[in-house]
Design brief:
Elements (H helix, E strand, L loop, with lengths): L2 E8 L20 H14 L5 E9 L7 H14 L1 E12 L6 H10 L3 E7 L3 H6 L7 H14 L4 E7 L6 H13 L4 E6 L7 H5 L6 H17 L3 E4 L2 E3 L6 H7 L5 E3 L4 E4 L2 E4 L4 H5 L5 E5 L2 H12 L6 E2 H8 L3 H4 L1 H9 L3 E3 L3 E4 L1 H4 L2 H8 L1
Parallel strand pairs: 1-2, 1-9, 2-3, 3-4, 4-5, 5-6
Antiparallel strand pairs: 6-8, 7-8, 10-11, 11-12, 13-15, 14-15
């Protein structure tokens, strides 16, 4: 039996952050109908594959309540074969779930929590439009998660925030590290067109400052026992996100919910971000069939984000060409200037190369 991963999108939030362009809304009036439709699709679209990871993303999944999440998870268990030790993650924001809710989720089978902390500076939270929680709410969420029995907690940290400084970032790093998470995702703020923050056109730290911030994150987390296994993701040994690695390594996955994407046997499917269409039963559209060139470009793009980089033997097995021969010019260029390491079996970016990763990847694909 082949395997897959399952992503479930919950498009509701307590409030909409100023930088967010995800498919989400604070209007949860359709939540009951949405859960019913999700469960119907889980029952009717079952695949004869072993599920290696389940990820509830959003939005803020915990906003619809622990009982609803557990009902959806039970439907997954009833209709799919889950692997031993299947990683089951729920995203959460501070102030959206209490200790009892976390205990309910843990008992139902959730074993990983991904919490949006972002910053330990109240002014920076306000600048991001994260008005629904405080810094202390973030600490309380992690404390309750531990009390509920969660032994795998991931925290989100953001940098490049309006008016953020190196000192305030250090304070946020110290705060996050004091909570002892197993995993940390560190993302640079990106102003997405159409979002409230984009329309405000705030003054952001310049590119050199943002690069220095990333270097500070990389150095601080490295000294604290976290290794960078992907450009924006750091983990203690053995706590890498199995679900996200599925995406970066190009494996199949099934997405359920409004705006969710799937990749099944080199065909990408997308459920439109249309709640009415989803609730009426409209099925996902096939948006892209990956041919040989498309698969190769995607493989390089995703693997160069990983610390492990491109595996040359695997590349030859997948695409029938020699990576060293086909990309000799790019390899020489970036390895020669210290942006990458080229050895017998792998080609991967250095810490310096990560800063120009978009340029490097574009040159390959």
């Amino acid at each position: 039996m082949s395997d897959t991963a399952l992503y479930i999108h919950i498009p509701y939030c307590k409030s909409k952050c100023g930088y967010c362009d995800f498919c989400s809304s604070p209007d949860a009036s359709t939540a009951d109908a949405y859960v019913t439709e999700l469960i119907r699709r889980i029952k009717t679209n079952r695949e004869d594959k072993t599920v290696k990871s389940v990820y509830f993303g959003g939005g803020t999944p915990t906003y619809i309540g622990a009982d609803a999440l557990c009902e959806i998870l039970q439907a997954v268990k009833d209709n799919y074969t889950l692997s031993d030790g299947c990683e089951i993650t729920a995203e959460a924001n501070p102030g959206t779930v209490d200790l009892h809710g976390l205990e309910t989720m843990k008992k139902a089978g959730f074993n990983r929590l991904s919490a949006g902390i972002q910053t330990a500076n109240e002014n920076e939270l306000k600048a991001l439009g994260r008005v629904s929680h405080t810094v202390s709410d973030g600490a309380a969420l992690v404390k309750n998660a531990r009390a509920a029995g969660f032994e795998n907690v991931s925290l989100d940290l953001m940098y490049g925030i309006p008016r953020q400084t190196a000192d305030s970032l250090r304070q946020s790093l110290d705060f996050v590290l004091s909570l002892c998470p197993e995993h940390i995702s560190a993302y640079a703020l990106k102003l997405e067109e159409g979002t409230p923050l984009y329309k405000q056109n705030p003054a952001l730290p310049d590119d050199d400052t943002v690069a220095d911030m990333y270097a500070l994150i990389n150095e601080t987390l490295g000294k604290s026992g976290y290794h960078r296994y992907e450009i924006s993701n750091f983990a203690k040994p053995g706590y890498e996100s199995r679900h996200n690695l599925r995406y970066w390594q190009g494996g199949d996955y099934i997405g359920l919910g409004v705006s969710a994407a799937s990749l099944i046997e080199n065909v990408r499917y997308l459920q439109a971000p249309d709640m009415k269409a989803f609730l009426s039963g409209k099925v996902p559209d096939a948006v892209e069939v990956l041919d040989g060139a498309g698969r190769e470009a995607e493989y390089i793009m995703l693997h160069l984000r990983l610390a492990a980089g491109v595996g040359k033997k695997e590349f030859r097995q997948k695409f029938g060409v020699d990576f060293d021969e086909k990309y000799a010019a790019q390899i020489k260029k970036y390895a020669g200037h210290g942006f990458a390491v080229d050895d017998d079996d792998r080609f991967y970016l250095t810490d310096r190369g990560v800063f120009v990763s978009n340029t490097v990847i574009a040159d390959f694909i």
